[in-house]
Amino acid sequence: CLGSRFGPGVIKMIPNRILDILTTVVGVTPQLPPTIVFNEGWMLRLLLDALSRIPAQESPLGFLPGATWFSEAVLPTAFRPRTQADKLSESYTHADGAIGHISVAKAGNAYLTVGPEATQFAIVGAKMFSALSSGVKNAPLFNQAARNVACMAEVLRRAGCSSDQLTNVGFYVLAPQVAIEAGVFSPFLEREHIEATVGERVRAYGGVRDDWFNSAFQPLIRRIDLKCVSWEELLGGLGRGSDEAKELGAFYQNCLKYNMPR
Q1: C-alpha–C-alpha distance, residues 159 and 83, integer Å
Q2: pLDDT (0 to 100) of residue 108
């Protein structure tokens, strides 16, 4: 099956024993912890793959024509070091998932860009029961939601792509329904909170980043869709009777089982 999809040259690069070792997580004598397989990262990849094959999907993660997805892409930041000793800087951000008219460097660091004619650009954070990360070393309050949205603004700025031309632009957090209902993520996804958090980050630069905040970030924060979406809702959109929906539903149940807080 893999050989017919990728060709024998690619398959030779991936030893069969990788799959053999991975399957031990559900065996009597596992050689890896089950969370290596059953986790939010793989759940996200499987779900994005499924959604990408459903045309005109009516959901926040519906793919527009010509859109694609990528996992663990590197997003640029407007707060790169100005000097080696810059105490305000941060490194690049890795996006759990990205959807839209995007391209990613096939070599090196998986650097993400959007085309100047893009109409869809969304970043997805995937969670089971963990919260959004609180900040970075030089900005402890620059939480994961604010950081991802700020990086999206920088991606668009570098591409010369206006957020006004995007039909679909969003930052979404996927999580179990029970975690969403508990309010774990909602404070961080409020538009006013993200704008205030990024604004505080910018003010630390004493005016140096004000133009970026006004011309790149603020147009985006006015338009971007910010939402928590449950895994359960998206799985339901696949059609409960299909074999793929059943397979992903079973995989999700194992993700819940092995990631449930003790």
Answers
A1: 25
A2: 67
